[in-house]
Amino acid sequence: MTTLPRGRYLDRATPPHISTLIVLTGLGAMSMNVFLPSLPGMAAYFSADYALMQLSISLYLAVNAVLQLFIGPVSDRYGRRPVLLASLALFCLATTGCILAPSAGIFLAFRMAQGVIVAGLVLGRAVVRDMVPQEQAASMIGYVTMGMAVVPMISPAVGGLLDQAFGWHSTFILLLVAGLVVLWLTWSDLGETAQNRATSLRDQFRQYPELFASHRFWGYCLSATFASGAFFAFIGGAPFVGVQVYGLDSVQVGLCVGAPALGYFSGNFLSGRYSIRMGVNWMITAGAAISTLGMVFPFILNLIGAHGPTLFFGAVTLVGLGNGLLMPSANAGMLSVRPHLAGSASGIGGAIMIFGGALLSALAGWMLGPGSTAMPLIVIMLVSSALALAAIFYTIRRERQISGGF
Questions:
Q1: Are 296 and 404 in contact (CB under 8 A)?
Q2: Residue 406 located in a structural domain
Q3: Is 112 in contact with 105 (CB distance < 8 Å)?
Q4: What are phi and psi of 306, to 5 degrees?
């Protein structure tokens, strides 16, 4: 049972209000995709190839992955609050650098530095796990990410409108303003929730093998990795498919990129409502199955020549729905394997998840070129979703073997 005091809004001596956790995680989601409709225009502005500017996604994800290895243990040692405040301040500085960058190389360097905002996602989950037990954590994470899902649903469309009206710089000005607001809110509302801190970072890293030896941890981690991999591949390839394959403009691409967030929102609502009743394994299995089926349809229809933007982006909405069901339970499972290492588990699991996403995002960008159809992206997303389903089947089988089920 937690001994944390009852939360009071805008009281930094108590745990945070759920709305603070929503905006913390939402800022990272906004940073990921608000500028996507601007990528072709940014390539023209810097006189760079689209493939080079697409690295603003892949490199950002790679930095996210590396940082997550350290953010979790550091927060377990020094606390969630100081790490979050430092990360938000650095994010605001990096965003200013993106706005002022004179070249593509300098822009990419500051864009990579923006990856520090991943602390909001990692520690938002850890704070929830600090406050409540596993099944309730899956439910609460579902509600947090349901609110967070509104951001990637809206931000690409907002980014497209800003790009069309004021140019690509305006999207990063929006990120800077949002970052400053979230920094103030976190300072004012988020009290420390890490009660059992490690004596040293060395002790934290020494306990990593305890996580690595757990089949349950790997099962939940790989389910989350492959499920999110389908989404990251979409993020990497959707702007190209929308513009080059289907002939959409930046505003239309922004609206279409938000398609999976619509499904994700719905899945998170269902996860928040039913995770406690159904259990994490059932929710993960249902989510992975829906995501896989969602990509089977466009795969078959593309083989017979029936394709178009409505079909493709509509199918991706089902992937979002599946991920909305899966991700809160997979994250709660990872964090509950060793509750005293919740920050480390969130960091390690998130690092593996984001690193896999970076690879799939880069793969999507590499496979899509002049004359490409949407088929390479569909195949990547289908295979990744199917592997998420295989991972949870393996986890359930291992649990039954350990418990003597068969």
A1: no
A2: no
A3: no
A4: -100, 105
Task: Give CA–CA dist 131/169, Å, rounded.
Answer: 39
* Gap between the Cα atoms of 363 and 377, Å rounded: 9
Does any domain span residue 4? no
Domain count for the chain: 1
Show the DSSP H helices in 279-374 as ranges.
280-303, 309-337, 342-367
Q: Residues with Cβ < 8 Å from 165, sequence gap 6 or more?
A: none
C-alpha 284/C-alpha 264 separation (Å) is 14
Please tell me the predicted confidence (pLDDT) of residue 190: 87
pLDDT 10s digits, 269-313: 888 777 778 888 899 999 999 999 999 988 998 888 877 888 888
**The one-letter amino acid at 18:** I
Q: How far apart are CA 176 and CA 169, in angstroms?
A: 11
* C-alpha–C-alpha distance, residues 319 and 334, integer Å: 21
pTM of the model: 0.70
Domain holding 30, by residue range, is 18-193+200-401
User: Which CATH number goes with the domain that contains 239?
Assistant: 1.20.1250.20
Does residue 12 lie in a domain region?
no
CA distances from 43 to 39, 52, 81, 168, 381 (A): 6, 8, 38, 10, 26
Q: For 35, which DSSP code?
A: T
Q: Is residue 6 part of a domain?
A: no
